[in-house]
Amino acid sequence: MKDVEAYIKNILKERKVHFTLIDPDEQTPEEALNIATEAIEGGTDGIMIGGSTVDNVGVDETCKILSENIAVPIIIFPGNTSSVSKYADAIFFMSYLNSNNPYWIIGAQALASPAVKKSGLEILPMGYMVAEPGGTVGWVGEAKLVPRNKPKIPAVYAMASEFLGMRFFYIEAGSGADQPIPPEMVAYTKRATDDMIVVVGGGIRDAKAAYTAAKAGGDIIVTGTVVEETTDVKAKIQELTGAIKKASIE
Ligand code: 1GP
C-alpha cells in the first residue's frame, strides 16, 4: 500500500485505529498469514511485524506472504537493525527515547538507514517510550522505565519528539504486560502534543482495556499477545475493534 500515513490519518478523521502485532518468531509465515487474515476479518486496520529478538529471514518471509495476500498496510515494528523487508509497506522508524544506551536511541537507526533507504519503505518517524513493567523490550533496550505512577513523564518526551519532527509517539508497557499503560499517561501525552499520532500498546487483552486506551487519547491501539493466546482470532479482534469504535464515537 502506498502512503500508509495518509491511510491512518484518513481513518482517524472518523475513529481510532487498531493494529495487530505479529511476532515472526512465534509462528511460521503461513500461520502468520492465517492470523492476519482473521484479524482483518475482525476489523483490524493494519498488521505490524516485529519483536525484540526477531531474525531477518523470519521478518522477510512473513512480510512477503502477507504482501501477496492481504490489503491492509504491513508496517515493520523493528527490534533491531535486521528488521527490514522490502515486502512491507512502511516502517516505524523509531528512537527508543528512554534507553540508557545510545545504540537504541540513534545507533541502530544509523546502521540500518542504508538498508531502509534501499528497501523503499515508507518512513513513519516515531518516538518510543517504555513504561513499567517493560517486559522483554524494557530489558533488551536497557530502558530507564517510566514509573507507572508518573504519568506526565512521557508527555514531555512526546512534546520534544514533536519538536524534533517525529509524527508518531508510542507508549509501551511491554508485550504481555500484566497491566496496560495507565490511562492518565495516555491522556497527558495526547494533550501535550498538537498533531502527534499517539500509539498505545502492551498488555491490552480485552474490550475494557482497548476502550480505556482509546478513550484516554490513544489514536492507534496495538495488540499482539492476544492473537497468540486465543483460539478465535476473529472474535477476539472484533471485541477489541468494537470497543475502540465505541470509544471513538462517544
Ligand atoms: C508490544 O505493544 C505491543 O510491543 C503489544 O503488546 O503483546 O501485550 O499486546 P501485547
**Side-by-side strand order of the widest sheet:** 1-2-3-4-5-6-7-8
Can you tell me the CATH architecture? Answer: Alpha-Beta Barrel
Give the CA-based shape: globular
Which value, in Å, is the CA radius of gyration? Answer: 16 Å
**Share in β-strands:** 15-25%
Distance N to C terminus: 30 Å
- What's the number of extended β-strand segments? 8
Bound small molecules, deduplicated: SN-glycerol-1-phosphate
Largest sheet descriptor: 8 strands, parallel, barrel
**Mean pLDDT value:** 96
Query: CATH homologous superfamily?
Result: FMN-linked oxidoreductases
Jot down its keywords:
250 residues; alpha/beta; TIM Barrel; 8-stranded parallel β-barrel; 10 helices; 8 strands; globular; binds SN-glycerol-1-phosphate
Textual characterization of the structure:
The structure is a single chain. With 250 residues, the protein is α/β, with parallel strands linked by helices. It has a single domain, classed as Alpha-Beta Barrel (TIM Barrel). Helix content is 45%, strand content 17%. The protein is built from 10 helices and 8 strands. Strands 1-2-3-4-5-6-7-8 form an 8-stranded parallel β-barrel, surrounded by 8 helices. Helix 2 packs across helix 3. The protein starts with a helix and ends with a helix. The mean pLDDT is 96. Bound molecules: SN-glycerol-1-phosphate. The site of SN-glycerol-1-phosphate has 13 residues, from strand 8.
